[in-house]
Task: inverse folding
């Protein structure tokens, strides 16, 4: 047995598959290859001007050149509380808000504050790649609750109950979903929330795609529909997706005061305050109206329908229409085992590699999200790239026998 210089806890962490695919696509582009990337989940729009201008002004203000409170600028925390009431109907105090370095730190802080070693966490799959890693880093044990396209990638109370044991302490709930774009109806959200309350579970609910819902789909916040759950619920959110600010790294967690205090203590030792310029930019974002968001949403909605039509026309590919976020999650199980350019397609990971190598299109395989046999494509890119990229995939996959 080879000794590792890396701790077992850190050695067990997998690299973020979505960031790895995006990095490889960008490296190939830099080398001159015409790669089209559907890997990263980030809007292709620039951050709105009024937000950038607020950051530029902050750069010249000496008060932002110094340490500020680890838990976030007081004015930003207050603005997040106001924004939360406006957008989801959840009424919270500024003291219940912790500003974090993106949504990922909010999730880790929440898990670290709430989980003890061996606690089981129900995690509906497909899931975003970071959830199980953060749960395990905090000492928890992720328990996958499998869904598929036949249920619209939505877990039922019955499935959750079947997975619950006497070691279950938490549910991770995400709607709209990354990677599937699934949106739970208000009735489903309420039923799951009431079930969690009945069994004394914590719920960590990720609401970062709250504004990106389409058609008849409706976003609903679990602690609003089930007020009794509010004292055992942590809401995670951020500016990344709504305001095209993925690179600014500002997220937040909202929860009971004692949980937020514990998470703030952790952050005070891990990273201290989020960069002040980014916090000032986030303040401008959450304090402003949603007109820029509405413009992006219209483009995403158009692209959503375009990519579903194009993927659905490929033999062996089944692509449900997502109701939220900016991802499609087509099944490619009909292609597994077929021959393509001299190779037998062994898995969706293998297929994603072939698509990148042979068609110069970057997609993320379902293995990264706990469900082999699928691909995730982000349609937060131009209509032209969607048409060209899926067209290349179609031409390649037409050769599969």
Result:
């Amino acid at each position: 047995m080879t000794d590792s210089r890396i701790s077992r806890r850190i050695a067990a962490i997998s690299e973020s598959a979505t960031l790895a695919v995006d990095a490889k696509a960008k490296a190939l582009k830099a080398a001159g290859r015409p790669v089209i990337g559907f890997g990263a989940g980030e809007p292709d729009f620039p951050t709105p001007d009024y937000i950038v201008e607020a950051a530029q002004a902050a750069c010249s203000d000496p008060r932002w050149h110094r340490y500020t409170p680890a838990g976030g600028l007081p004015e930003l925390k207050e603005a997040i509380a106001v924004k939360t009431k406006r957008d989801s109907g959840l009424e919270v105090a500024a003291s219940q808000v912790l500003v974090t370095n993106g949504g990922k730190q909010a999730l880790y802080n929440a898990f670290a504050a709430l989980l003890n070693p061996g606690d089981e966490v129900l995690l509906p799959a497909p899931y975003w790649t970071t959830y199980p890693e953060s749960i395990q880093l905090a000492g928890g044990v992720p328990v996958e609750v499998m869904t598929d396209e036949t249920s619209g990638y939505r877990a039922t109370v019955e499935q959750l109950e079947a997975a619950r044991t006497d070691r279950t302490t938490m549910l991770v709930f995400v709607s709209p979903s990354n990677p599937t774009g699934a949106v739970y109806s208000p009735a489903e959200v309420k039923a799951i929330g009431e079930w969690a309350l009945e069994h004394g579970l914590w719920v960590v609910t990720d609401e970062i795609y709250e504004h990106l819902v389409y058609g008849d789909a409706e976003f609903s916040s679990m602690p609003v529909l089930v007020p009794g759950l509010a004292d055992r619920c942590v809401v995670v959110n951020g500016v990344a997706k709504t305001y095209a600010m993925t690179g600014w790294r500002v997220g937040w967690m909202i929860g009971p005061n004692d949980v937020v205090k514990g998470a703030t203590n952790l952050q005070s030792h891990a990273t201290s305050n989020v960069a002040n310029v980014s916090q000032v930019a986030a303040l401008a974002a959450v304090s402003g109206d949603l007109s820029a968001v509405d413009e992006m949403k219209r483009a995403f909605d158009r692209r959503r329908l375009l990519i579903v039509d194009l993927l659905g026309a490929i033999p062996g590919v089944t692509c449900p229409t997502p109701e939220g976020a900016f991802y499609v999650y087509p099944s490619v199980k009909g292609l597994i085992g077929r021959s393509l350019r001299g190779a037998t397609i062994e898995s969706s990971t293998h297929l994603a590699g072939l698509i990148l190598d042979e068609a110069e299109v970057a997609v993320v395989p379902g293995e990264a999200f706990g469900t082999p046999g699928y691909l995730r494509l982000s349609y937060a890119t131009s209509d032209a790239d969607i048409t060209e990229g899926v067209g290349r995939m179609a031409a390649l996959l037409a050769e599969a026998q």
